[in-house]
């Protein structure tokens, strides 16, 4: 410590200006050099450092402003998207309800058309059955009539003579002719 104080005290006793040399006393030269370098840095670097800090501050502030503007823009877009979503959901509900009512209407139309078709088929079936019944009844009548006629002819042929036989045949032919006119 004595060397440090001696170096400060010896500042007042400078040797003559003609001598120049290196001071090898590290403790005496470091604080002086450091104070000179720090003084120069503070004096000259103060403006540069202030400019750098001001520039950095301005960049940070502009970044914050840009971020705020982006955030506001994102919020606006989000609100517009939410509005569109609500509108689309309402439209989807309308389409869904219209679709359901359309499906119900189509279902009802299909059921009605099927019922109509079934009713027509039932009527056609009944008409066909009635027609077939009438046809079968007519066929049975004709067979019964033919068999009765053949039986009657057989009986007549065995019991009647030729003259009576011809009269009976003419009468039966007349009856058959009258029956044909009735059925036509």
Describe this protein with a few key phrases.
184 residues
Concise structural overview:
The protein is mostly helical and 184 residues long. Helix content is 89%, strand content 0%.
Structure description:
The chain is an all-alpha fold and 184 residues long. It has a domain at 33-138. It contains 3 helices and no strands. The protein has helices spanning 2-9, 26-159, 162-183. Mean pLDDT is 82; it is low at 7-16.
- Helices and strands, in order, run as HHH
SS summary, helix count: 3
Rg measurement, Å: 66 Å
Query: Overall mean pLDDT score?
Result: 82
| Helix percentage | over 70%
Main pleated sheet: none
According to DSSP, the number of beta strands is 0
Report the portion of residues in β strands: under 5%
**Which consecutive residue ranges, at least 5 long each, have pLDDT under 50?**
7-16
**What general form does the structure show?**
rod-shaped
Return the structural class. mainly alpha
State the end-to-end distance: 158 Å
Any chance you could write out the topology, listing elements then pairs?
Layout: H1 2-9, H2 26-159, H3 162-183
Pfam family, one: ATP-synt_B
Subcellular location: Membrane
Keywords: ATP synthesis, CF(0), Chloroplast, Coiled coil, Hydrogen ion transport, Ion transport, Membrane, Plastid, Thylakoid, Transmembrane, Transmembrane helix, Transport
């Amino acid at each position: 410590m004595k060397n440090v104080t001696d170096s400060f005290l010896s500042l007042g006793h400078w040797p003559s200006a003609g001598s120049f040399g290196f001071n090898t006393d590290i403790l005496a030269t470091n604080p002086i050099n450091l104070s000179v370098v720090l003084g120069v840095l503070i004096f000259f670097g103060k403006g540069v450092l202030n400019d750098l800090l001001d520039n950095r501050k301005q960049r940070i502030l502009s970044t914050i402003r840009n971020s705020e503007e982006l955030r506001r823009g994102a919020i606006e877009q989000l609100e517009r998207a939410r509005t569109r979503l609500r509108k689309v959901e309402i439209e989807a509900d309308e389409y869904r309800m219209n679709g359901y009512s359309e499906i119900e209407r189509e279902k009802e139309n299909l059921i009605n058309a099927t019922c109509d078709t079934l009713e027509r088929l039932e009527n056609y079936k009944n008409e066909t059955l009635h027609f077939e019944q009438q046809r079968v009844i007519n066929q049975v009548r004709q067979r019964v009539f033919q068999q009765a006629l053949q039986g009657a002819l057989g009986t007549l042929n065995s019991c009647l003579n030729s003259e009576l036989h011809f009269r009976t045949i003419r009468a039966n032919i007349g009856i058959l002719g009258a029956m044909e006119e009735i059925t036509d």
